[in-house]
Amino acid sequence: MSGYTSIWLEDFEPGQHAVYGEHHFTREAVLAFARQYDPQRFHLDDEAAAKTHFKRLSASGWHTAAACMKLLAAWHFRLRAEAEARGEPLPALGPSPGYQNLQWIKPVYPGDTITFSGTITGARQMKSRPGWGLITLTPEGHNQHGDKVYAYDSTVMVACRGNTGT
Amino acid sequence: MTGELLHYEDFQVGDAKTHGPFTLSADLIREYAREWDPQPFHLDEELARNSVLGGLCASGWQVCAIMNRLMVDGYAAHAAGLGSFGVGEVKWLKPVYAGDELTLRYTVLDRRVSSSKPDMGIVTMRWEAIDQHGTVKTEMTGVNLFKVRHPARPEAAAS
Q: Alpha-carbon distance B44 to B67, whole Å?
């Protein structure tokens, strides 16, 4: 895994890229997630799935989204841990106001391993909130065949240098 | 629900309905966060109280998943549904706190039959997650796909 190391707003630049990591979707996990959050028949039942354009059982799109968030967060928290180990101050954590253009491009099937990555597309200070900025990034997921299966445009609040939240 | 499944024809532009509620416990917030979004304001009440979010609150992705669950229980489980290819926009307007009771209000914004698949209807919806005080916490706009009950026959389309 490799990529950008920015954690402060001032360090983000369009074009920075990182491979956040891989997530393997087991049949058991696909069924468990679907039972809790997306109990549609084609996410739970092989026969019902075979009759749809998915052709066979596939993961809930919200499962794919959750896996992407998991690896994106792990990437960010690894960078924070490294900064902390160097004795550096840490930026305050900011929330996200939302996202756009979320696409489930191809089904994710049990047994698939999805590699999640992301590219920074913008970074700017917020006029309304001193000490904070907004970055935009496009996370993506590719399956083991190299096909893009998932993408969205994310916006996240990021602290400006010196805003440690304390 | 018994009887015929909901199809594309059953969703008309302007239709609006509310489903739910779903009560979000602190345990469920932490369970999701531990697995998928382990940020302190979704896990630790004291840290959350001192963050910009002001208290333990659910991952926005969990709120989307709960909206999806309300959608499934409300209508998708009783529909000839074909899933979705995406969500145009999500606005996490306000934090969803432990104990919040969310209902889902959907409004049909637009609909059309797929040009490449005449048996697939594309319905654009706005979904709002509304708490027990009537505050809209999250707003999402996206697509539901449903089977068309009576797809136009090719010869009919050509004439």
A: 24
